[in-house]
Predict the structure.
Amino acid sequence: MRLATWNVNSLAVRLPQVLDWLQLHQPDALCLQETKLTDDKFPHAEFTAAGYFAQWHGQKTYNGVALLTRAPATDVVRNIPGLDDPQARVIAGTVQGVRVIGAYMPNGQAPDSDKFVYKMRWLDALRAWVATEARTHPMLALLGDYNIAPEDRDVYDPVAWAGQILCTPQERAHFRGLIEIGLHDAFRLFEQPPKSWSWWDYRNLAFRRNQGLRIDHILVTEALRPAVVSCTIDKLPRKNERPSDHAPVVAELSVP
DNA sequence: ATGACTCCCAGTGGGAGA
């Protein structure tokens, strides 16, 4: 089973690239973030034609998530139950016996901003809900754009980024909180090349200089951990002519 | 360097992203 996550930064712009990528990699589930489309504009016919079922939860201009699967997803949930959130950031479904939760976690903008307060509250709600979900579904994966670089080795210049958004101790504590409820960072289950990033700023020739952060993650429960045979970041789409600023992250699992 | 780019909605500029 192949699971993947990709922040596409506008599905309207990136749709051809997503269709190409699906064709090439044939994931069993692909979670998309930042679709930036209202539900009526979601290109579901194009995904159907590509052999994928789709579930989506969008809004105008910002945010928006989708779950593309080869088999139909069941028990689909949009947003975090019980959290009154006007922003479309979560889509979850059960796919081939695995609970797949796709999330676009808040950016937070700056540590002293209202958006940071929202990010902290949102992450509290997510952790509580995922802990509950994991009790019901021992085989669970939480994939998405976390907007958190968990450790200094996930940052190209940890000194410059120290205390900055995506790298604050509070955000990193939230990431560890997800580990403490029994999740494992699939990427770190394996030896990885140093300077592995999933996002590079559009500015400053950051991709060419490999100046990035690892902020897109696939976390899996203890029951799923032994099944993970690889986890990689696919940098190739970042080399496209009009790329997203994020690259897809892919996990291969030895489950039917 | 309060920048740089890209996307969106707007409307000939500004917010947000990360």
Helices of chain A lie at 11-25, 44-49, 114-136, 158-161, 169-180. The two ends of chain A are 6 Å apart (CA to CA). Chain A is about 25% helix and 25% strand. Residues 9-10, 12-13, 34, 36, 60-62, 107-109, 115, 145, 147, 164-166, 199, 201-206, 213, 215, 242, 244-246 of chain A lie near DNA strand B (CB under 10 Å from a C1').
